[in-house]
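Sample intake — Leucine rich repeat, Ig-like and transmembrane domains 2
Collected from: Sphenodon punctatus
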Amino acid sequence: MHLKSLEYLTDLTELRLQGNKLSTVPWTAFQDTPVLKILDLKHNRLDVLPEHALKYLPNLTYLDLSSNQLTVISRDVFYNWPVYQKTQQPERRMEAIANAVLALHANPWICDCRLRGFVQFIKSVSPPVILMNSYLTCSSPKFRAGKFFHEVELSSCMKPLTSSFDSNVTVHEGLNATLTCLVQASPSPTVWWTYTQKFLRAFNVSTTHMSEDTIKVELVIPSAQLVDEGNYTCTAANFLGNTATTIALKVHSPRMVAFASTASEESVYIDVRIAKQTVYGITLEWYAVTENPGETWYTLHFGKYEDSKKEMIYIGPGINTYSVNDLLPATKYEVCVTMRNQLPRKEQCIVFVTGSDISELEQREKLIHIIIIVCAMVLAVPAGMYACTTETRFNCMEKCADLCRKNRKGKKNLRGGNKENTFDSLPTGSEEGLCHRDSSEDKKRPRAHEDKETPNKQKLEHRNSADLY
């Protein structure tokens, strides 16, 4: 409907626009129709009625706004209506004022504080203003749905106020943790929970109405684990503003004793290696000799290499493997295994880089290339091959020295040998020479025997050194 659509219609007395799917009406256009008496707008899509809507309809005797989409309107809409103003003037009450019929039913009224003034107006209406249907009903909120206006008492609007029964909650590991947040607000606020952990999980949230303006919001954390510890924030907001309260969750593990690590624990050597590679992930494996293996907990520190704060994953007794999936391509990662909550040491960490993403299905087994730091050495290991950080039968110094000797020997042989023996020429599925454990026969064999190898053996060593470096 255009703003000028009623121009030059000064003698118009009746306007019926029902069922025209109107979502707005230019109410100021009625300045051009001062004698309009009947305005029928039922069965449209009007959802807003501005405060000045009836200001230019001084002689209106019938207004039908039924069956629209009105949810909240101000009582000032009618307080600004000249017809209603006449009824409120004592000096004009003796005058004969024509009745004015209002039809406002069949709208989805939201009965909260925003409708308080309008409900009060409806309750106070009396002739000459007459309601076609005085039984206006609430559509929402749910606890008021279906109630008549004269059955509800609406309070004033207020900004949310949040509180909690207990700001510090402690729960045993494996049990459900329930965090409770009380919210006072009008109208009903939107409430959500946030917490500081990087690893987010979907928790159940229930809402209970304690009274007209008070709700109880409970966050249930099923089978709480150590990684669920942290500060949980309950935030409530409505059109007046927002507020929040924080609850600290502590998860107590009966199998973990909260005391300082002993010197023996701090000196425990952990043998860490990548046991398996998949298309988009790895499986980590570790070994450690401890005094009480059945009570020993480990902590995995995992994240991007450049991140200062890594995600911590707690591993219970009897477990020595962990799989990491959904790795990003062409990304450098670091994973460390420590005792309990100890800070990781360099020898307890593995650094690896994932390869570029390859769309061809047949080439996906080549997706991940691993670069692993072993003592002071760097091994470049192609996809499909196992990569170890230590070998159980040699200590770190002996192994590094042995590898360095082979490295120098391999470089000399490479200079005069076949240049095609490169990293890229390695067979993808090979595990030979990298992760095998020394057999008892190898252990019994004297080291001097290595210097007396046959030329064929020297050629094999040449290939192994080229494969490694």
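Post-analysis note: The CA atoms of residues 32 and 44 lie 23 Å apart.
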